[in-house]
Structures are given as C-alpha cells and as structure tokens.
Design a protein that fits this description.
Radius of gyration: 38 Å
Largest sheet: 16 strands, antiparallel
Number of domains: 5
CATH class of the largest domain: Mainly Beta
Shape: elongated
CATH topology of the largest domain: Porin
Distance between the termini: 66 Å
Number of helices: 9
CATH superfamily of the largest domain: membrane protein fhac: a member of the omp85/tpsb transporter family
Number of strands: 31
C-alpha cells in the first residue's frame, strides 16, 4: 500500500515534549531607555539602570492571548494570574506557562514581554493540539474496546487534551494490571498516531505474547537450569503473578547473588516480545566446619562439603563428617529435574553414632549409644504452583548399646529386645514417608515474607521390615512478615508443629518417639528432654538484620512431647536471645535460652535459622 505524502501522523510524545519546552522561549523586544524608566523593565530589556535612577514598580499595562482558535479565551484567562495592573515578575510568567501547560490543550506556549505604556505588555502565543473528530482502538483482545474507550475518555470533535490523555493511559494500563497481565496496554510513544487529514486519533494496544526468555550473566549455570524454574510459557501473554513467582524461584535456587527483573523487547507490531533477564552468579560450593558442646556427647566437630550447582546442572553433591562425641558421615546426591521433568531424585548413604540419654522428671534414667547405617532414596514431584509431593524410603541397620560405668543402660522398652542380656540390641528397620508441601516464602534459607505448610504421613515396620510397626503423622506451619515501616530488616517469624503416633504392632520404643528439647525445638532445655507418642510445639522469633553479616533474634519457645510413660500435655516454655552471623563458611546462629521455671539457661549452636 502506498501512503499519500500529505498524510501526516503526529506523535503524542512529541506534543508532550513540545509542551514541556514551550516555557523556555522568550521573545524580548529591546527599546531605548530613559533615566526615569523602571529598573525592572530595564533588566528585562537587557540594560542596567543608570546610577541614581528612580526605582518604580513594574506593572502589566497590556495583556493578550494569541493563537487560540478552539479553546475559549475565557477558559485561558481563568487559568492565568497575569492581569492588567498587576505587578510584573519573571516568576509570574513561569507560573502562567505552567498553568497553560497543565491545561493540556497546547503543544507550544511562547511568552513575549515588551515595554508598553510605562509598563510591560505580556503576550502568550500558543499553538493548539490537533483537533480530534474520532478515536480508533486496535490490538486489544483481552480487554474490551468499550472498557478502553471508557477509560480513555477522550472528547470527540474537540481539541486533544494531553494532560487528560496522560491520566487516561494510566487508567488503561490499570485495566490490564487488574487482570494480572504484565507488559500490556500502552507502553511506547509509537502506539499513538493522529491523521491530520481525517483527524482520527489511532491507539494501538499492546498485548504481546512471549516469544523467548533470554538470560545473560550466567557463566556457569546452564540456561535450561534457569528457565525451567519459570512459569512463563512461550506463546502466552505474561501474567504478573507468574513473573513474580518465576523470579523468586530463580533467586531461591541459591546460585545467584542478584536476579534483575526482565526487560521486555517488543516487536514492531507489538504482537510478540522477548524477555531479557540478567543474573549475577555467586559461589555455590561451600566448605563449612564448626563445633559445639553437648552434656551428653561432649565436644562435637563437623566438616561439611557441598556443591549445590554441580557442573552448572543444578545438581547437589554433599559430604558431611561429624566427629568427637557424636560421629557420623553422610554422602548424598540430588538431581532436581530427572530426565528434564520437574521430578527430583535423590540418594543418600549414611552412618551415625550418637550418645543419647533418657530423661524423666529432670533426671537421667538411661544412657546408651545409638548407631545407624543405611541408605535412603527420595523422589519429589511438583504437583502445583508452589506445591510439591515427596516420598522417602529408608533402609537402615540399628545397633543400640547401653553405656555402663554409671549404672545406666538401655531404655526399658529396648531391654525387652535384649535377648542375650548383654546390653546390646541389633535389628533392621525400614520406613516410608510421604510429604506434601506448599511453600511461597521469598527465601527458604532466610525468609522474610510468605508461608509454608507441610503435612507428612509415614509408616515404620507394619508391612515393611522392623521389630515393631507404627504410623506417624506430623504437620508444620510457618509464617513470616516484615515490618520495614517500623525498622529496616525487622521480621516476625512464627512456627507451629504437631505430631501423632498410631502404634499397630508392639510398642513405640524410646528412640522412635517424638522428642523436644535443644537447638531446633525447645531452646534452654536438654536435647531430647521430652519424648512421647504425640507432641505440640510453637516458636516465635523477632529478627533484626543490622548488616549483611550480622543480626539478632529474640525468641519464645513453648511445647511438649507427651502420651508416653503416663505423661499428659504439660507445656514447657523458654525465652532468649540469639546471634545470627552470615560468614564465608555459611550462616551460623548462637542462641541462649532460659526456661520459665527455676533452672539455668543454656547456649545452643546451630546452622542457619531454626525455621
């Protein structure tokens, strides 16, 4: 199609730009000066008054509007401050130009100041915006033309009002944002056009479909590892919630120091777009070591080596060794996308040896060493947005030895399995766990907002290998909220956990009961001080991050494990203060918990947040 040379289109942005610049032009006429001429006028004319000249106030003695054809002069005059007889000043002219600009009817505004009848004459020369006879909307399919025209509210057979049009653009874009659509509406200046011949305002709405997601800045991580975590589908219009969750998922991989919101690159016809996202990688390999002290196990040390982005494929390889009073090793491997599907597969080999004690009424009644070695296989499936289903099968050999010397031995329920009366019990055991999790937290490692709900059902023995059979059910709910309006880096975190055991065969042994007390449950109490078939636990923390590396937390813990040995629910509570450190070796915490009863407080060392 050949376009006629006489057919011109005027960009709305050009109108706005011209309107903004119109106050800068001043046509200043110069005339001869007299000795008694007002000093202010002489300054405007570019001349300095003679020494000793009489100072007189400068008045507006003439006033005129030139160039308006369709905009009523009365409307203009009601907008301006300048009036005949009023004191003249440059500030007054500037205010008038801004007022005319805000009317939105003029593309050009040029004030002219000339001497006139012992004062000045103020003339505003204006150029009106184009006259609009009709409006044409195209490109929209997700929002109706009627709704767009209603939001646009452009008067037909009238001068185009640019100020009103700017507000209308916001309303049109809000129609799309209210529908949860991103990068839609009026995005660029070339979506407007005015046909000077037909006087039709044409508006082309953008509803671009995603063509490709391009990632930059990743040198190690493969592109597919990033894009597979995103909810953005090619050929679809991008939804705001999908975009937010996609960015969160990519950041929560833990591979990147920063993930910038993607920049849209639209095609000329606005029907398609590419998203360009920039990431900044960080180290994904870690080597941490540390230690602590337990009244049961004495001095404990550990060395933990991990790579969470093995060869840029997003795979996790980990080796952990614990030594001292508590000995263990763990070797594990996790493939998060098995055969390029959102199905994870993990394998773990482990061997542990830990000294434990049974406490009743704040007194130790048995002390023993528990050894376990075996394997576990875990599979996970993404069953919904922010929802996962995981199952874990564990096969292990258990050996329990009573610790003599102080008169302590095996717990009573394990003594019944000691057929040889040698203080040693050995058996094989298998368990199967199924867990459903919904998690929309902003950062799983150190969350500030969002919530997490996890429900688990498991079986040990029954139809699997084991001396006894029982089912266990647990629930875990966590919620986080920031209070940056009160103080930067202030977060309120809460957790509620509960569990129940249903015994099918035999009895529930001490080592298989739920246990509370210690670093990860009830701070201020002995490790595993309270055990039972059932448990209830609540934790509240107020966290304040002062720097990237340093933070504090105040906490209150309350809970109990019960329904064993004749014990009913009797909540135990503590309070305390904790130190949070983000070091090159990883995040560490040191908590001091003090029970509400008469006992002394205790220090607890841990890695990362408690929850």
């Amino acid at each position: 199609m050949k376009i006629r040379p006489s057919l011109k289109r005027l960009s709305i942005l050009a109108l706005v730009t011209a309107l903004a610049a119109s106050g800068a032009a001043l046509a200043l006429a110069k005339t001869a000066t007299k000795e008694d001429q007002p000093a202010g006028l002489a300054k405007i004319l570019g001349e300095e008054p003679k020494k000793g000249a009489k100072q007189k106030p400068l008045k507006i003695t003439g006033f005129e509007i030139v160039g308006n054809q369709n905009v009523s002069e009365q409307v203009i005059l009601l907008t301006l401050e300048s009036k005949i007889g009023k004191d003249f000043s440059q500030e007054l002219v500037d205010r008038d130009v801004r007022a005319l600009r805000n009317l939105g009817y003029f593309s050009t505004i040029v004030p002219q100041i000339t001497p006139y009848r012992s004062g000045v004459k103020v003339v505003y020369r204006v150029v009106e915006n184009p006259y609009i006879k009709d409006v044409k909307i195209s490109g929209n399919g997700l929002v109706s033309t009627a709704d767009i025209l209603k939001a646009l509210n452009v008067k037909k057979n009238a001068i185009l009002n640019v100020s009103q049009l700017q507000e209308a653009i916001k309303r049109i874009n809000k129609l799309y944002s209210d529908k949860g659509l991103a990068y839609c509406g009026i995005l660029n200046q070339d979506q407007f056009g005015i046909d000077s011949t037909t006087q039709i305002l044409s508006i082309r709405i953008a509803e671009p479909k995603l063509r490709e997601v391009k990632v930059t800045g990743n040198k190690k991580t493969k592109n597919k590892v990033i894009t597979r975590e995103m909810f953005l589908k090619k050929g679809d219009v991008v939804r705001t919630e999908d975009l937010k969750r996609s960015l969160r998922n990519v950041y929560n991989l833990g591979y990147f120091e920063d993930v910038k919101p993607p920049e849209p690159k639209l095609t000329i016809d606005k029907q398609f777009m590419d998203l360009e996202m920039e990431v900044k990688e960080q180290k994904t390999g870690s080597a941490s070591f540390g230690g602590g002290y337990s009244s049961v196990n004495g001095v404990i040390g550990f060395l933990d080596l991990a790579e969470s982005n093995f060869r840029g494929n997003g795979q996790t390889v980990r080796a952990k060794i614990q030594f001292g009073g508590e000995k263990s090793y763990v070797l594990s491997f996790v493939e998060p996308w098995f055969q390029d599907r959102p199905v994870s597969l993990g394998l773990s080999l482990f061997k542990t040896a830990v000294d434990r004690q049974e406490i009743q009424n704040r007194s130790v009644v048995s002390r023993f060493r528990e050894r376990r070695d075996g394997q576990s296989v875990t599979g996970g499936w993404r069953v919904g947005r922010d929802q996962r289903l995981a199952t874990t099968f564990t096969n292990e050999n258990v050996e329990v030895n009573g610790l003599g010397g102080l008169g302590f031995g095996l717990p009573a329920d394990l003594q019944r399995l000691d057929k040889n009366a040698d203080g040693k019990v050995e058996y094989g055991e298998q368990s199967l766990r199924l867990t459903w999790t919904s998690d929309d937290r902003d950062n799983p490692m150190n969350p500030h907002s969002g919530q997490r709900l996890s429900l688990t059902g498991g079986v040990t023995g029954v139809f699997l290998k084991g001396p006894n059979g029982f089912y266990q059910y647990t629930g875990d709910y966590r919620r986080y909220r920031t209070f940056d309006d009160v103080a930067d880096g202030l977060t309120l975190a809460g957790r509620v956990r509960a569990g129940h055991t249903s015994v099918v065969d035999g009895e529930l042994r001490f080592i298989d009961r739920f246990a509370l007390g210690g670093t990860d449950t009830l701070r201020g109490f002995e490790d595993r001080e309270f055990t039972g078939k059932d448990f209830l636990l609540g934790n509240i923390e107020v966290r304040k991050q002062f720097t990237k590396m340093f933070g504090l937390a105040a906490f209150v813990d309350s809970g109990d494990a019960f329904s064993s040995d004749g014990r009913d629910l009797d909540l135990k509570s503590s309070y305390g203060l904790g130190l949070r450190l983000n070091t090159p070796l990883g995040p560490f915490r040191l908590d001091y918990g003090k029970p509400f009863d008469d006992r002394d407080g205790r220090f607890h060392f841990g890695i990362g947040q408690q929850f």
